[in-house]
Amino acid sequence: MEQPQPLLQRREGAVLVLSNNNPAARNALSPAFYTALTEALAEAESDPTVGAIVLTGEGGHFCAGGDLRQLAKRRDLTIEERRAKLEGLHDLIRTVRDCRKPVIAAVEGAAAGAGLSLALACDMLVAARNAVFSVAYVKVGLTPDGGTTAFLAEFVSRQVLTELCLTGERISGERLHALGPVNRLAEPGGALTQALALAAQVATGPDLAMGRIKALCRSAYVQPLDDQLELEAQLMVQSQATEESREGIGAFLEKRPADFARLRQVNAAGAGTQDTTQ
After folding, report:
1. CB-based contacts of 23: which residues, under 8 Å, 6+ apart?
2. pTM for the complete prediction?
3. Which residues, 6 or more positions from 140, have their beta carbon under 8 angstroms from its beta carbon?
């Protein structure tokens, strides 16, 4: 029997929609999904017609985390073999985090364990009010991976982080919104629609500048002020010399909308336009 594609793709104008396609297992993660998502993000980065990406899941769930049937078999592997398999997940998390294009998670249903990590690795998050988030590892005698503790620590206290990790408590989209990481709260069934609207808004922006802004937003949480000021200075002086800033400033002074989509096409066609500042 032919296996379904692990990742479905479609376009909504300048927005690329990527959907985890393992609904029978509530979109549990697999090596095939790691490969498919990594390849799709790489293609999107090099495609000037893609302005933003929405990551979601089929069948009413975002991602239930790792496949426990597969994880149970890993106790028979050596520690080196277990580590190698785990790095597949961690490489995927880094790929999502480091993608130059804005990535927005649209969460309905469950986002548990590594599924929560995947949602938090995205640049922005839209969640249904009744979506269920959980750092579920403790329930099965495991410890968090996929950057869960790092992402959660960006917006909750150590006490709340410890509670979420030690209890594995299921929390709603409403509570996660109150804690900070959810950008938009949608009615049940409406997360993808709101995520697409948000993605369409940012997809009209300047490609190189947005990639640099993403780099600044990531580094702001991990380095001292003086280091962040230095990075801001480096990226600002580079941005001042781009056609994007020429277009943006000119459009502002001329009281017209800036046409950054045209510049993405020009940047892709020209030599030496790859942004290496991230």
Report:
1. 57, 58, 59, 60, 61
2. 0.92
3. 68
